[in-house]
């Protein structure tokens, strides 16, 4: 299936609580950009396939569209539910060879006309980097990274997300590595930005993002965040943000540093315990990979066991 002429898909990828929403909201201020609600397509497609079946007929396609729209947890989806019938019928008119074509078609119909760029942001898609890179060869990617201690702290502070500090740190390493291996191949199609740089120098980073995507900068891009402006936080190397409540204790902070040290250093954050990364990092990544495989297979009884193992 061929994408509508001149439409460009941009994937914002990053581990949870790394600032992907901030980047999405910033770019969403550009008139040439359509912001797709956070659909979590790949995770939810395979979940839906169990009870809907393959996308080999228009009836199943319509069922998938309904499923995606009504199980989407992003508040943005509420703006589009009144067009559900139009979206469902528009997608059903297209022919798809596989789920990737279906995803393209869904984005094309959902976005409508009038914009050049379709922006897709789902942190969980970082785990599907290989799938996305291989099946969207013309897409561009924005990789958002954040100091791992701050990222883990923010995740735990949410309270409604599962995981210990150690298991979340292992996720941070493993998920980011999924995209790192493809960066040489992507070359000028990927831009890596740091959360701390966006917070401390929002205008400079906004210009960088616009240049990468061929967009025109607007001051409205700087009006994002809970107070309609950027929080001027201090950016430091692996130290919890001074403007956010610290919910993980010192012992957990040290464990997170040990697990993430190698990759954090590679990203420009201060490198802690480099020798320990071979032990702590690789063990955490191993169990994260096993847990991910179990999740794909629908095996969940031992999730708690692996969480405890991750925690050491």
Write up what this structure looks like.
The model is unreliable at 226-243, 272-281 and 300-312 (pLDDT under 50). Helices cover 50% and strands 8% of the residues. With 312 residues, the chain is α/β, with parallel strands linked by helices. It is built from 14 helices and five strands. The chain has a five-stranded parallel sheet with strand order 2-3-1-4-5, with helices on both faces. It has a single domain (8-32, 115-310), classed as Rossmann fold.
Question: What structural keywords apply?
Answer:
14 helices; five-stranded parallel sheet; 312 residues; 5 strands
List the helices and strands and how they pair.
Elements: E1 8-13, H1 20-27, E2 33-36, H2 41-52, H3 58-70, H4 84-92, H5 99-111, E3 117-121, H6 129-135, E4 140-145, H7 148-158, H8 165-180, H9 183-186, E5 190-194, H10 195-200, H11 202-213, H12 250-266, H13 277-296, H14 303-310
Parallel strand pairs: 1-3, 1-4, 2-3, 4-5
Helix pairs in contact: 2-3, 3-4, 7-8, 8-12, 8-13, 12-13, 13-14
């Amino acid at each position: 299936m061929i994408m509508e002429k001149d439409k460009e898909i941009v994937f914002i990828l990053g581990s949870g609580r790394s600032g992907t929403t901030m980047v999405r909201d910033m770019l969403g201020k550009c008139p040439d950009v359509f912001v797709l609600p956070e659909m979590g397509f790949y995770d939810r497609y395979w979940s839906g396939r169990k009870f809907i079946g393959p996308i080999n007929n228009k009836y199943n396609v319509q069922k998938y569209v309904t499923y995606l729209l009504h199980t989407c947890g992003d508040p943005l989806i509420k703006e589009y539910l009144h067009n559900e019938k139009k979206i469902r019928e528009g997608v059903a008119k297209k022919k798809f060879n596989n789920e990737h074509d279906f995803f393209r078609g869904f984005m094309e119909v959902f976005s409508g006309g009038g914009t050049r760029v379709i922006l897709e942001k789902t942190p969980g898609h970082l785990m599907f980097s290989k799938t996305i890179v291989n099946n969207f060869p013309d897409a561009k990617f924005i990789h958002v990274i954040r100091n791992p201690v701050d990222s883990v702290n923010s995740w735990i502070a949410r309270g409604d997300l599962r995981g210990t500090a150690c298991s979340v740190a292992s996720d941070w390493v493993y998920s980011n590595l999924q995209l790192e291996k493809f960066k040489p191949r992507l070359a000028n199609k990927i831009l890596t930005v740091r959360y701390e740089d966006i917070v401390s120098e929002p205008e400079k980073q906004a210009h960088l993002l616009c240049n990468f995507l061929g967009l025109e900068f607007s001051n409205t891009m700087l009006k994002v965040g809970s107070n309609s402006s950027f929080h001027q936080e201090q950016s430091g190397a692996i130290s919890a943000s001074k403007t956010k409540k610290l919910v993980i204790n010192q012992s957990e902070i040290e464990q997170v540093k040990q697990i993430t040290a190698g990759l954090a250093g590679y990203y420009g954050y201060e490198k802690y315990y480099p020798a320990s990364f071979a032990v702590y990092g690789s063990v955490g990544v191993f169990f994260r990979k096993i847990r991910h495989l179990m999740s794909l297979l629908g095996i969940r009884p031992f999730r708690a066991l692996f969480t405890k193992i991750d925690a050491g």
